[in-house]
Amino acid sequence: MIYNVSYVVLGGDHPGRMQSQDNQPRVGEKIQLGDLLVEIVEVRELMPPMGDFAYLHVTCRPVKAEQEK
After folding, report:
1. Cβ distance 37 to 68 under 8 Å?
2. Is 58 exposed, middle or buried (0-12, 13-18, 19+ CB in 10 A)?
3. Are 61 and 10 in contact (CB under 8 A)?
4. How many CA atoms, within 13 angstroms, populate the side-chain half-sphere of residue 53?
């Protein structure tokens, strides 16, 4: 399955990202978006999967330095 993912970062200081990936994003997962480490807080399906493609909207929040440990 290929996941077409729209990443939105809460707070408006990061432009977010659109990308295709092989793994499904999960709530609580930490990922790197450019120079910013973020934690996924919400994953929503934008539309039902079509063939081998899924379309997701992911909301993230920046991870503070003390949370990175």
Report:
1. yes
2. buried
3. yes
4. 8
Neighbouring CB atoms inside 10 A of 66's CB total 6
Residues near 35 by Cβ (< 8 Å), separated by ≥ 6?
none
Half-sphere exposure (Cβ direction) of 56: Cα atoms closer than 13 Å: 24
For 63, which DSSP code? P
> Which residues contact residue 2 at a Cβ distance below 8 angstroms, ignoring those fewer than 6 apart?
20, 21, 22, 52, 53, 54
pLDDT in single tens digits along all 69 residues of the chain: 999 999 999 987 889 999 999 999 999 999 999 999 999 999 999 999 999 999 999 999 999 865 555
